[in-house]
Amino acid sequence: MLDTTLEQKRAGFWRGLSLWKKILIGMGLGMLVGLMLGPEAELLKPIGTLFVNAIKMLIVPLVFCSLVVGVTSMQDTRKLGRIGLKSLVLYLGTTAVAISIGLGMGILFTPGDGIGMVAGDSAAVAKEAPTLVQTLLNMIPKNPIDALAAGNILQIIVFALGLGIALNLSGDKARPAVAMFESLAEAMYKMTELVMKLAPYGVFGLMAWVAGKYGIDILLPLIKVIAVVYIGCLIHVVVVYSGLISTLGRLNPARYLKGLANPAAVAFTTTSSSGTLPATMKAAQQELGVSKGISSFVLPLGATINMDGTALYQGVCALFIAQAFGIDLAFSDYLLIIMTSTLASIGTAGVPGAGLIMLSLVLTTVGLPMEGLAIVAGIDRILDMARTSVNVCGDLMVSVLVAKSENELDESAYNCPSYNGSRADLA
Ligand code: ASP
Question: Which of 2, 160, 313, 334 is the most buried (most CB within 10 A)?
């Protein structure tokens, strides 16, 4: 009898926790269990994979339906262009700042000093990265069904924008189709909420696997570069993003930081900003009060072209490699790194490890030894966790600022956690 009451209390405690707290507990427990079990913790990875697959299942229908609905709810095509331009300027501007922070941190803390590598030590081959022109040309899907089936987000965005505009121009005749997309989008939002309930368990499984795989010993020699990337990421979110939220948006940055907890945790453990998209959209709408119209356009775009964390990481790693090999960089090299990384971020896919491929592009451009990739590759997952979280936080920041500037931010929802009726679902 006593046991049953205790059980009930425990179950009640867990159920009463808000989702972000559950996710945090999952992460902490996962790390602990992973360190205890070591490589054996791989056994727990399927729990994480289950969650990742469930969330991936949502991406294509969610992005497609909500983007079409986003456009049809904005009859004014000029407004759409304005929102696109604002997002692009903010995305690229913050990316350039991020990489400058990465370079600054690398200069200040010299994470590569004392590693003493000699070019030719180990072999690593530069992987091919798509050029900017290639990326732009590839944005038009020759076959939209192909694009949907392949999950090509940029192509899906282009087709959904076109379809939304065409539905608007078709007037009354297109009403049934618009209503269908509206109800499908609602169903996808609901499904996202259901899948997110799995997040604490998925995060537990993924975290246990990573902690078990890397352990403390493997990390120690490279702890400095890891620390520099993590501190840089933290500065970018807390100083740059929060600063923009309060100066440009005239909003309370603490609310922004609280609102991004769930998607940041999902990004941290899945290392994919595209994969985190359903969680990001949910947080933007329900936690931060961004309208569905703005979030469904700005966020998918951000998940594919905005990679501030990746850019910051490239700055640190380029310097780390230069220092490890004892190579001095000129001022023009720094400029080259800033330009290449900013442009490369447009073509970086929001999937695990994509930043490493782009790093090879930066190294080649500046003429740094490709062998450096081999050292970074060993700890890439750990660096990917931090940079993906920043990528997602950047997307959210831009969605809030753009919504605010377009009068599409529900400030009562932004400021008051209990305002939005749907928030109960988050608990
Ligand atoms: N994993 C990152 C993301 O999805 C991309 C990267 O590897 O930097 O945003």
Answer: 313
